[in-house]
Structures are given as structure tokens and as C-alpha cells.
Amino acid sequence: MTTKQKAYIALAATSIIWGTTWVASKIGVQKTPALEVASIRQFIAGSLYVLFFLFVKKLPLPTLKQLGWLAFMGILMFVSANGLATLALKYISSGLAALIAALYPLFVVLVEMLIYKNNKINQLTFIGIVLGIGGIGIVFYDNAFHSHTEGYLLGVILSLIAMVTWGIATIFISRKKAIINPYYATGWQMLISSFILFGMVIVSGDHIPLAMIPFQTWGALAYLILAGSILTFVAFIYSMKHLEASIAALYAYINPIVAILVGSLVVNEKLTFNILIGSVITLIGVYLVNKSLKQKKEAIPCSDADAM
Q: How does the average pLDDT of the chain come out, rounded?
């Protein structure tokens, strides 16, 4: 088997497994408080990453300055984005949650344009934004008038906040040079955020003793940690290394569809023609926005700073 073939297998694994993690999270929060599930997941996954880099790769402990930055990014990415997205699954389908999360490139474009004045919206970007918002509107409309889940609107709001904070984190990362190995940093962000989430769980009083957490939740957590946080991460890095960036990025358009289809089969989430059409329209919009950004970057001559 060639390296290219292995890379495509890695891409397929990334697309499918990351799509199914939304459904696994949905299963995990059915009988256990959502923030407790998120805190346990981040603690175990973060610990595995940190221990690997500390004792296998022999990396030094982060400095106090680095820990401050890691804590800030952990709050954005794993307390707010991941924590709220997990909480939202109490109220909305895994497919809708995955679709809302996929909108973050649209938010990044708007922030870059309105705040940093960096991106002038061209025709392709505008069409992408309209399609993205219009598609999610179709899915939301179809769910809103047929959903019998209490707190549906709250779930949508939580998912939107999670998507926005993930977008903000993306902007910060793109504008600040890496101060530490990015994978090692991810482990520390997970670990730090797990303690913050534990604190939120204790203060809220919405938790159950570890001994009372059902096997269903532990099974979901095992899948989320081993498959979602470790195996898929390795597969994603491999695909990014051996495939063109535009090909490797296809996972972002596939995993919401996987979440929708698997959610309908495994946890009996509603699947209608409107939801499928709206999802496809949304993902086409996100694709067009990403494509327009790529075209802009290619059109900008490489400066001395870019070449460093």
C-alpha cells in the first residue's frame, strides 16, 4: 500500500470517526450531566497527551507565561467551545450540533472583515455566507416546528456560542506564533480546562458520583478519548502531511453528514429531506467561503515576513 493510499484511508477515518463523536457525545450525556462528561473526557485525554510529551518526548514543563496562554486558550476551546457544545447535545440533535460547529469559518471571515479589516467580501465569499446561513436556517426551521425536545432553542444558542468561541480561538491561534509544541499545548489546554469544568460541575451541583455513572457513558467516553481524541488526531496529522491541504480539509464537510446519518440510525434522531438539503446547502456555503479565502491568499504576493 502506497503512502498516498494510506493518507486517503487516514482522511476517511478522520471524516467518519469525528462525525461519529457527536453521536457518542449525545449518548454520553443521556444519563450523565453533560459538563461532567466533558470534564472527564478532557481530563483523561489531556493527561495522556501531557504524560506522553513529558516522559516519552522529554519536553520541559511550560513556563508560567506559557501556562497563562494555555489556560486562556483552554477556556476558549475546551471549556466554552467543547463544554457548551457537549451541553447543547442535551437539547438538540448531534447532526444539528455538528452542522452549527461547521459554520465557524463563516464567523471567522466576518470577524476578520469587520474588526481587522483584512478581508473584503468578494462575490464568492458573499454567496458562501448566504448559502451557509440559509442552509442552517432550513435545518433550524425543520427542527423547530417538529422538535418535542424541551430546551431546543437553548441548545441552539449554546451551540452557536460554542461555534463563536471556537472561531475566536482560531483567530487568536492564527495571529500568534506558537509558543509551545501545538500537540503538547493541546494536552495542557485539555488538562487545565478539565479542572475548570470540574469546578463548574461542583458549583452547579449537577453531577453524580463516578461509581454511579452508567456503563453507557463510560463506553461513550472511551470511544471519545481513544478514537476521537487520539486515533483520529494521529490520522488527521498523517492526512495533512501527505495530502494537499484542500483534500485533507474535506473532513470538515463530511463529518456533519456522518453525524446526521449515524444519529438517525443509532439514537433515532429525526432525518427529513429538508434537513439533508439544508445540511448540503450549508456545507456548500462553508466550502465556498474557504475557497474564496484560499484564492485571496494565493493572490497576495509573498512578503519577507511571510517567507520567514
A: 86
> Strand locations in the chain, DSSP E?
none
Query: Would residue 151 be called left, alpha or beta, if left means φ above 0 and alpha means ψ between -120 and 50 degrees?
Result: left
* Rounded CA separation 285/140 (Å): 16
Q: Which residues, including other chains, have CB under 8 Å from residue 293's CB and lie 6 or more apart?
A: 105, 109, 119, 125
Instruction: Please name which of 164, 162, 104 lies closest in space to residue 293, comparing C-alpha atoms.
Output: 104
**What is the C-alpha to C-alpha distance for residues 286 and 275, in angstroms, rounded to an integer?**
16
**Mind listing the pLDDT tens digit for each residue in 193-236?**
999 999 999 999 999 999 999 999 999 999 999 999 888 888 88
pTM: 0.85
- Give every CB contact of residue 178 below 8 A, 6+ residues apart in sequence: 185
Q: Which residue has the higher pLDDT, 143 or 213?
A: 213
CB burial of 5-24 (b: ≥16 within 10 Å; e: otherwise) equals: eebbebbebbbbbbbbbbbb
